[in-house]
Design brief:
Number of strands: 24
Helix content: 10-25%
Strand content: 35-45%
Shape: elongated
Number of domains: 2
C-alpha cells in the first residue's frame, strides 16, 4: 500500500474519531462545582399595568437536542412580583427527564407530591448523576434572620443546567381553577414535546357553582361551568436560547396574562316600584384549553361562566333605568354559528331577582332573560384566526361587550320588542329549554 493511502486512512480515522466524540456528551467531572454546567439567572420584565403579580413561578428548561429537562420554582421575593437583576431567588428544584442517561424522575413516593403542585414540592438534593443541577436549596421565609438569608442568598440564586439549545417556559396558575395538561408525561417522556403542554381550566356541574342561597335555572343546556379566574395566570415562553457550558447566562422573560378580561355592559328598563335586588349572569362560549408555546386557544370544547354584575341594587326602586356591568376573566369567548340560536356558545343569560308589590303585599320574583351576542361578540373580535389560517388566538387582553339593546321588564316579565331600538342582538324571555342541569 502506498504512503499516500496510509495518509488517507489516517486522516479518515482521525475524522471518524472526532465526529464520534462530538456526537456524544459525557460528563467526566465529578467535582462539586461542575465546570461544564451553565449558571442561569432569570429576569422578569413585567408590563406596567400587570396586576396581582405572583409570588413564585414554575420555570421549565427544555433542551431541544439530546433532551434534558428540569423544572425550577422561582421565588419572587419582593412581594409584588417585581424582580430586578440580582434579586431572583431559586426555591425548590424539580428534576425532569434526562435522555442521555434514560433516567426517570422521582416517583410520587419520593417527592411527596406529584408535579405540578409547586406550592408543596419538597426540596431535593439533585446531583450531576441524575441530570440536574448541583444546588441544594432551602426555602426563604419571613421568619428567617436577615444574616442567615444573606449567607445563603448567593447559593439560592444559583441554578445550573447542561449546555445546549433550550426552550424556557415560565408559568404560575391557580391549581383550584386549572391544571397544566400533560406536564407529568412531559416530565418523564422525551416523546412529549413542549407543544403539547396546555393550561386546561377545570369544568364543574351546575350544582357546584356558588351563587349563595338563591335558586336558579340554567336555560342553556350546553356544556359545564368554568370558574372565572380569580387572579391572573401569567406565562412567558422563550422558544430558543443557546446556553454555553461553563458560562453564566441571563434568561429574560416577559410574562403576560393567559386570560382576557371581559367587561359586559347592559341596561335594564323597568317600572317604578319594582326593585331589582341582584342579578346573576351566565355567559357561554368559554374555551377550556390554552396552548402555552403557540398561544393558540382550543375552541373545540367551550363552556359557561357565572358572574355577578354590579349595579345600584340599594336604591333603584324609584328608577326606571338600571346600568349594569360585570366582569369575567377567561381565555377566550366563542360566538354562536348564527344569530338565531338560543342554545350553545355566545349566549348571555340573566337571572334577575326582583321585589314588587301586589295588592299591598311584597312579592319576590325571578325573571329569566336571554340574548344571543352574535353581533356584539363579532364586533369585539376577542378571538381571531392565526397566521396559519387553522388555529385561533387571542386578539387583545381587555374586551368590552357593550350590549346596545335594552332589557325591558314590564309587569314583572321580559317584554319582547321585535324592534328593540333597532339593536342587532335582542333580549328574549328564557323559555323552551327549562332544564335544571
Amino acid at each position: 500500500m502506498s504512503r499516500i493511502n496510509y495518509y488517507i486512512i489516517g486522516i479518515l480515522t482521525a475524522l471518524c474519531i472526532s465526529f464520534c466524540w462530538s456526537c456524544a456528551e459525557v460528563d467526566l467531572c465529578e467535582v462539586e462545582e461542575h465546570p461544564h454546567r451553565a449558571t442561569l439567572t432569570f429576569h422578569f420584565d413585567w408590563e406596567e399595568d400587570s396586576e396581582d403579580k405572583p409570588e413564585q413561578m414554575l420555570i421549565i428548561a427544555n433542551r431541544i437536542i439530546n433532551t434534558w429537562r428540569a423544572g425550577f420554582v422561582v421565588e419572587l421575593p419582593d412581594g409584588d412580583g417585581m424582580v430586578t437583576e440580582g434579586e431572583t431567588v431559586f426555591g425548590k428544584l424539580i428534576t425532569m427527564v434526562d435522555e442521555e442517561k434514560n433516567e426517570v424522575p422521582p416517583s410520587e413516593d419520593e417527592t411527596g407530591e406529584d408535579l405540578p403542585n409547586i406550592d408543596e414540592q419538597p426540596i431535593e438534593e439533585d446531583s450531576d448523576e441524575n441530570g440536574g443541577g448541583e444546588t441544594e436549596s432551602e426555602d426563604i421565609t419571613d421568619e428567617s434572620p436577615a444574616d442567615e438569608e444573606d449567607e445563603t442568598s448567593s447559593e439560592m440564586r444559583r441554578m445550573t443546567v447542561k449546555g445546549g439549545e433550550y426552550q424556557f417556559l415560565a408559568i404560575n396558575h391557580n391549581y383550584e381553577e386549572s391544571e397544566i395538561e400533560r406536564l407529568e408525561e412531559f416530565r418523564s417522556d422525551i416523546g412529549i414535546t413542549a407543544r403539547e403542554l396546555y393550561v386546561k381550566y377545570k369544568t364543574n356541574p351546575k350544582d357546584s357553582v356558588d351563587v349563595g342561597s338563591r335558586a336558579w335555572i340554567d336555560y342553556n343546556a350546553y356544556g359545564f361551568f368554568i370558574q372565572s379566574a380569580m387572579k391572573p395566570t401569567y406565562y412567558a415562553f422563550v422558544p430558543k436560547k443557546q446556553i454555553l457550558s461553563g458560562v453564566e447566562s441571563d434568561v429574560f422573560l416577559s410574562p403576560r396574562p393567559i386570560t382576557q378580561e371581559y367587561t359586559i355592559r347592559f341596561r335594564i328598563e323597568k317600572e317604578i316600584g319594582v326593585k331589582i335586588d341582584t342579578i346573576i349572569g351566565v355567559l357561554s362560549g368559554i374555551p377550556e384549553r390554552f396552548e402555552l408555546t403557540t398561544q393558540f386557544v382550543d375552541v373545540s370544547h367551550t363552556h359557561k361562566m357565572v358572574f355577578f354584575p354590579e349595579a345600584d341594587y340599594d336604591e333603584n326602586e324609584d328608577k326606571t333605568l338600571l346600568e349594569c356591568e360585570g366582569r369575567v376573566n377567561a381565555i377566550g369567548l366563542l360566538r354562536a354559528n348564527n344569530s338565531g340560536y338560543n342554545q350553545g356558545p355566545g349566549i348571555l343569560q340573566l337571572c334577575v331577582y326582583t321585589t314588587g308589590v301586589r295588592d299591598g303585599v311584597s312579592v319576590k320574583k325571578t325573571i329569566y332573560a336571554i340574548i344571543n351576542l352574535y353581533n356584539t361578540i363579532g364586533k369585539a373580535r376577542p378571538l381571531v384566526t392565526a397566521s396559519d389560517e387553522v388555529h385561533v388566538q387571542q386578539n387583545g387582553y381587555e374586551i368590552v361587550l357593550d350590549i346596545s339593546s335594552i332589557l325591558h321588564i314590564k309587569n314583572n316579565e321580559v317584554w319582547e320588542d321585535s324592534d328593540q331600538d333597532n339593536a342587532l342582538d335582542v333580549w328574549q324571555k328564557a323559555r323552551n329549554f327549562e332544564i335544571d342541569i
